[in-house]
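Annex B. Sample input.
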Amino acid sequence: MAFREMTRKNKQLPSEVCIEVLKSENRGVLSVLGDGGYPYGTPMNHYYNDADGCLYFHCGKQRSHRTDALKACERASFCVFDQGYRNEGDWALNIKSVIVFGRIQIIDDWDAIVDISTKLSHKFTQDEEYIQQEIRRSGPGTLLLKLTPEHITGKLVNES
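Annex B, continued. Sample output.
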């Protein structure tokens, strides 16, 4: 599939900046094709894996709108934006936003769940005891979602 080019190319972020936003921000919105063809977006924590260039999410194994949608259509998009900054003397916020388009695989492999859940948890805490306790408690009920990017685009938006 050919993805659209950004209309305002002067706002486009270089790919390395897009990756940095994906790595540094804690959450974004994962959107899938939901019931009746309506988009279904949910806030999700994520982990960008340098080793394979994929994004990972975790969710429960129980049947849900998101997992039903992913079983019907593996295509998804994920949108992340940073906290932004203001230039001195300016009221307008400058925000870097990134959208990843790709396909999601549902992974139900214990070793992968432990590995990625540990790495994802390190974005929030360095408390190894807490992380391992949570993985032992919640891990057996966890699915791992792997988003393999087909297209990544980002831009710098000025709210003025």
